[in-house]
Write a structure and sequence with these properties.
alpha+beta; HIT family, subunit A; 5 strands; 20% strand; binds adenosine monophosphate; binds zinc ion
């Protein structure tokens, strides 16, 4: 990743750079997707833009194509790993449950996905 796009001490920038290990699910020039370390569903994958944005609202404000691509990648992951149905959750702000301040969508899929609580 270019220095400009990278933020020091950001966990997901380090995962994208390979400095912190992850279980990769998908990668292209715009996004990196990997299994959540604490899965809440049969399929629980994080779709992360390679460029550092603090949250999904910043992605939306800066790059519509990237935001649409994150949804397309989520759909593809749900298709590959489950039956194509999925929930896509963007916790935005600490009060809303965001703990890593690099934008990411939680792709939740599999048989019992609908019964997962919205928050712990
Ligand atoms: P959020 O609370 O929406 O910011 O989501 C952050 C997610 O990152 C949580 O679901 C964590 O389980 C997940 N997470 C934290 N550290 C790692 C890691 N090293 N590898 C994979 N997932 C992680
Ligand atoms: Zn980052």
């Amino acid at each position: 990743m270019s220095e400009a796009a990278r933020v020091e001490d950001c966990l997901f920038c380090k995962i994208i750079d390979g400095q912190v290990p992850s279980s990769k699910v998908f990668e292209d020039d715009m996004v990196y997707a990997f299994n959540d370390i604490e899965p809440k569903a049969e399929v629980h994958v994080l779709v992360v833009p390679k460029h550092h944005y603090a949250n999904v609202a910043q992605v939306a404000a800066s790059d519509h194509e990237l935001l649409a691509h994150m949804v397309e990648v989520a759909q593809q992951i749900a298709q590959d790993k489950a039956d194509g149905q999925f929930r896509l959750i963007f916790n935005t702000g600490e009060q809303a449950g965001q703990s890593v301040f690099h934008a990411h969508g939680h792709v939740l899929a599999g048989s019992k996905t609908a019964s997962i609580p919205m928050a712990d």
